[in-house]
Amino acid sequence: MRTIKSDFWALTTNFLSVFF
After folding, report:
1. What is the pTM of this model?
2. CB atoms within 10 A of CB 16
3. What is the dihedral of CA 6, 12, 18, 20, to 10 degrees?
4. Is the per-residue pLDDT at 3 higher than 80?
5. Residue 1 has pLDDT above 70, yes or no
6. 3-state secondary structure the chain
7. pLDDT at position 4, please?
């Protein structure tokens, strides 16, 4: 489950970086 959480966090960070 840790891998999924990491992937989710990574996606969120990427989205934020692109959005901002």
Report:
1. 0.30
2. 9
3. -130
4. no
5. no
6. CHHHHHHHHHHHHHHHHHHC
7. 84
Amino acid present at 10: A
Mind listing the pLDDT tens digit for each residue in 4-16?
Answer: 889 999 999 999 9
Positive/negative CA dihedral, 7, 10, 14, 20: positive
Six token digits for residue 16: 């934020």
For the record, the structure tokens of 13 come out as 């960070």
Token pair for 2: 């840790």
Dig out the tokens for 11 from the structure.
């996606």
Give the residue carrying structure tokens 């996606």.
11
